[in-house]
Amino acid sequence: MKPTALITGASSGLGYEFARLYAANGYNLIVVARNEQKLQQLKEELSHVDVMVIPKDLSQPNAAQEIYQTVTDQQLHVHVLVNNAGFGLNGEFDKLALAEQQDMIQVNITALTDLSYLFLPEMKKLAKDSSHTGILNVASTAAFQPGPGMSVYYASKAYVLSFSEALHGELKGTGVHVTTLCPGATETNFFKAARGEKMKLASSAMSASVVAKQGFEGFMKKQGVVIPGRFNSVGAVAAKFLPRSLAASIAKNMNSAES
Ligand SMILES: NC(=O)c1ccc[n+]([C@@H]2O[C@H](COP(=O)([O-])OP(=O)(O)OC[C@H]3O[C@@H](n4cnc5c(N)ncnc54)[C@H](OP(=O)(O)O)[C@@H]3O)[C@@H](O)[C@H]2O)c1
């Protein structure tokens, strides 16, 4: 029987590429996002595997529980959970709508945490018969420093990295593996969604297919943290050694052309 990967945010960008990769590597899929039409198109495109479409707004507090219920009602078993859905908002904290920033926390942090919690117990059982069982969480290079001009987004990704690294350590020996993918700038709808007209898209921006492939391969090799691209890896190391205030002012410059 084929293993199953549940991928959030599969309607575009990195999540769409993850869906193609997992399908190409023999996984059935459960795909989640708000845009049902795009998910149905994905299902048609990947007709060589079973694809279950779950349209869901992850900013709703009960979203993770409802997804879990739908999956268990269909007696499906999730071997791999890819917590990829997420978004950023560009702008100063007190000038952005509070409700939108709360939605961001709900999608980037709470849904990711809840889905991990709900699917983990069965993953531990499945891991006894499957060597690639686990969670692939999508953080960002934003996780490595504070980000003036996108403060809640950077903080949310710092949570994803810290939480995922802790789970990676906690689950050693259980057969359930946790990888954190920390992409830098990647060519997706992210910047449009963040309304970041002022953000400078780095010339080093990578394609979504390359970034997703590196995340997928890192997960298969049971790596803890994957940072795609030399530029991003060097930046992550630099952020560790620079004073936090200097790292923050570099991020501020990237998030606002006016700085
Ligand atoms: N692109 C970059 O430069 C970059 C860099 C570092 C990290 N990342 C991270 O990579 C992940 C994927 O983003 P992307 O770059 O591929 O951007 P994207 O093309 O905008 O994709 C974001 C995905 O998240 C889903 N999503 C957003 N809000 C949602 C909600 N409320 N409920 C359910 N699904 C929701 C979207 O689906 P619907 O709109 O259909 O709901 C979409 O499928 C995110 O976690 C992002 O933070 C991106």
From TrEMBL:
One of its GO terms (molecular function) is oxidoreductase activity. Its EC number is 1.-.-.-. The keyword DNA damage does not apply. Keywords: Oxidoreductase. The keyword Protein transport does not apply. It is an enzyme of class 1 (oxidoreductase). Belongs to the short-chain dehydrogenases/reductases (SDR) family. This is SDR family NAD(P)-dependent oxidoreductase. It comes from Pontibacillus salicampi.
